[in-house]
Amino acid sequence: QVQLVESGGGLVQAGGSLRLSCKASGTIFSINAVGWYRQAPGKQRELVAAISRGGSTNYADSVKGRFTISRDNAKNTAYLQMNSLKPEDTAVYYCAASIEALVVALSRGFRSWGQGTQVTVSS
Q: Are 69 and 51 in contact (CB under 8 A)?
């Protein structure tokens, strides 16, 4: 079992930055792919960014050039650096982890999820 805890959300003005963290515990040696998803009110959850154990990344078109996903395997932590934030980035952001390779996790879905952290961007 893997437990994930997100932190770093909050209220920020448009154009500002936030860094989200996702701390993993439990059977962390099994973690391969890590992803960040978000869900805005009334909308479906969507992939924001994902990263493989080796550092390969995948980004939603809407965040390319503004968000950066990274991970520190020694600290069992993944990060999402969000710059140039826009009001449409407002959502609950969730961290997800999978024991499978990134391409498989993106296709089949991530198995472990955190509780989410709220990000609100004011105009």
A: yes
pLDDT in tens, 61-83: 999 999 999 999 889 999 999 99
26 strand-pairing partners? 2
In a 13 Å sphere around the CA of 3, the CA atoms on its Cβ side amount to: 3
Contact in structure between 21 and 8 (CB atoms under 8 Å)? yes
Let me know: does 48 contact 115? Beta carbons within 8 Å. Answer: no
Up-side HSE of residue 37: CA atoms within 13 Å toward CB?
22
- DSSP 8-state symbol, 61: T
